[in-house]
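Please go through the protein record below and explain what the tokens say about the fold. Record follows.
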Amino acid sequence: MFRKVLCALWATCVFAPIPAGAATGDIVMYSADAALVHGNWTLSADPSAANGTALISSDQGWSNTTAALAAPADYVDFTFNAPSATAYHIWFRIRAAGNSKYNDSVYAQFSDAIDGSGHALFPVGTTNGLVVNLARDATASGLSGWGWVDGAYWLTQTTTLAFANGGTHTLRVQTREDGVSIDQIVLSPATYLTAAPGATSNDATIVPKTTSIATTTTTTTTTTTTTTSAAATVVSDVVRYAADASNLHGNWSLVADSTAAGGVALASADRGVSNTAGPLVSPVDYFDIVLNAPAGTPFHAWFRMRATGDSKYNDSVFVQFSDAVTGNGVPLDQIGTANAELVNLATDTYATSLHGWGWQDGAYWLAQPRTIVFATTGSHTLRVQTREDGLSIDQIVLSSTTYLNAPPGVISNDQTIVAKPPSGGSPPVPTVPTAPATPSSVASYNAISDRNTYTKPPLPSLGAAGYSFTDPIFRSKMLRVTDGQTRPGMTNRSFRVPSNAHLAAWNASSNTFYVISNDGTVIPYAFDATTMTASRLGGTTTDNGGLTLAFYVEPQFSTVRPNLIYGAISGTNNRTIASYDFSSNSYSTIVNLDTIVAGLSGYVGGILSGGTSGENLLTFFGGGAQDQHYYALWTPLANLGARKLLNTVASTINGTPTATALNFHLHSAQIDKSGRFVFLYPTGVDLAAPRYAAQVYVWDTTTDVVTALTSGGHDGSLAMHPSGHDAAGYGESVNQDCCTSGSWDAAQWQFRELTALDQTSDLISPTLATKEIYLADHTSWNNAQPNSRRPVISSTYRYGTNTAPWRAWDDEIIAIDTTNGGGGAVWRFAHHRSNIGSDADPTSPYFWYEPIANVSPDGKWVVFTSNWEKTLGTDSSEGTFRQDVFMVQLTPGS
């Protein structure tokens, strides 16, 4: 454990002052505005914080005093809009757990900040960061409660900065010492340019928002729904469904509801509590909806609501807006004030009209403005806070045309689902073709299979997304799937295949796949194999660019039903597993993990499935961050009563001790394609002393025997060759390790039957003549078949101080024959052209640059990640080189 040295030598730079630009207003960010929350950071209710919420890093007694991290595990990102060439002073309101000087500091970094000389300042993806330390001296005598600070008392640092370009920027706050809380961050060009917004201790200042932040929020899952022409003459209706909500707080949650739009409703738990006096300035129970709309256009707001038990005590909410005004420009029902529109479903004192869903715009006993306008063009926030709990909402419509003078539906027993408009909105989602799952996949390929060395030729030039070309060496057809405009409202973001190659990123019919944006947004594509074209589902030319899925972890396509995909639903308790049906554009709850294990916190670590006619689900959970999970739930989807819950820390299955001692936390888990065998991967801490866990444990859910795949080292005497990335087929697995026989080489893979785990065979025979040590890969076997062996797909990459001569298979997408468990062909399809070296240290790999190929079930297509040798530009959020998703065709052999 390291504790900070309060007075120490520090490498500092002196920067020229930034010329002050025109003051454009303070940029104020509250904790709930965080776009990404990673690792030991969580959002937590705090009545002393702005809007009642604080970002808290759990105090685990550790710190990093050396420097910021280029790729931190524990961080929070904020996105905001700011012009270029304007000088901003940055301030943080911080609180230290226990008022301790060991819990009071963070690092701050920016996507594109510059100093007065135009040099990059504290850039994301580097080890340079602004040290923000709450204590003002070595004794920390003034530490008490909240306090405003802009740097560290013992350092000379630049706290005034500008941006090279106007538009969207990212601020990253990463852990320096844990146990810190943050509730406000202010970038000020005028008001607080030379003085802090409040005191350094016992502060109670809440800085009002004067400038909207960017529209990216932690749980925004669908596109914005309003656009204007250049002349602002045509404005579409703004339509929002429950799944579009962000910042769900208090008693609001997303629940599956077959009668609701998209199969999901926002529900406030009925606790018999109401607030009839008026709206709260800092409510505890609320949710937000982010939308785009122009200034000066009148909108009529309508809400489809339902009262629990059709009771008049469960039928009302308060509604506020970030920047609504009356027709005369007077602020109207704005967030952070005690003013709001009261929306009440009942239409009389006796609530005779309360029956099921109904549309409403106000309260029958109040004279309230029925139309609003926005003071500015762009992103706005609509906030719904609880007045009486026990209410459900599934649709919100702001109409400037269609429903300006009349509701979209009726006041009771309503069945109206308002379609999202195509102009800038989310149109009805095209149905994925319901072709049956492919019964068989390719057994061999028409491709180069020699062992000649083919060094990478000059980099092929690229067109925009949709551009097709041919690999210059291996002659495979290739497709660029994404580019910097794939999300028009968030340009120059990175796009990747799933980080876990075990996942089914393709549906069972090989005609739909998904990619992930670097903020976790899940983007599905329809694929036409006859033309090798990929197109966005529900494509638009604005905002997210089309349909996105309301899952916050990487989802898994069903292995048997082409229209289904499974994931952990966003905006709920973070522990609800649901499916999305492309044919009906609806979500359905599978299981709420809180009903399986009491007292849970944290989130779901991953979801996978396997099976043939039936399908078994695997999910692991229980912790607040990766490597803290310890539950693995295996269950038949058709019979949740047959579920089995494994606790890896307690070494139990449904409470019964396992014969094999586990005593580790989970880094990851996967399930084989048969749905029977579960692979459990311990954390790096558990692999090391003193635990010395095995690399992987295999749980046979039929017998409940758990077997450690030992390496022959500290973890056990039997050398079972368990290392490297792996992939499971139907009762079989392949992993990159060496060797069952012969001399060691990095380009070697082990094959084993899962009913005979200690019996392995080398897939490569003979090994390549020139030996290589530093080679890694990701393997994908989603094309596996239950009754015959199929090639396994590998995406290899060289790393480290690799001085070995270039060889066959280096940095390639390849397929390895598994027919006889070894000695077969290796087919070669393309160089993936991703430079996986970290920008800060090229000898170390940067995970997101790795190709991580994912094969379609028919074995004919592979999608992979590439930064195209770092030529795709700079990621607007992370500051790293952009990555895109590419596809390569695997041509079947005879």
